[in-house]
Request: fold
Amino acid sequence: INIILTKDNNSYRSFYNALLHEGYRDLAALLQDGIPAISSGNGRSSMDGMTSYVKTVLCEGGVPQRPVVFVTRPKLVDAIKKKLCCLGSDPGWVTVYGMAGCGKTVLTAEALRDHQLLEDYFPGGVHWISVGKQDKAGLLIKLQNLCSRLEHDSTLSQRPPLNIEEAKDRLRLLMLRKYPR
Reply:
């Protein structure tokens, strides 16, 4: 509890929610009176501070939702945001790496929950793909899905790629011609 009290209000709320969802309702009830109020005075449309635009873009792109048990890590999230902003002037990749389960997905998804970042640097939206270890059939399905999402507003309804090489070629063309940023 002492560690949680040194963190921000979101940490306390996350701890409370974790107790509720993990079957410790009695302990959560003891902490209920101390839950900090959530302010909504900065033009945001929801409790978690996300605008409806951000929610829509992230949902359409398949970006994972914030977990029930969530602790903010602002320095790491800001570092990812800065790297993502660099893609506006220098196309490339941002790679987030670390041990399994250390929070790479949560941090990266959190960095994308920024209205201005999405509007300025990702005008075509975000397309999230979790690949992990895949056999060739699983990888082909992921690539077919991405092709389908990227071609969603195309007037030509193309058949899905039949193999990984065809999928790579189609994605390369889509990235070069339709989504250069």
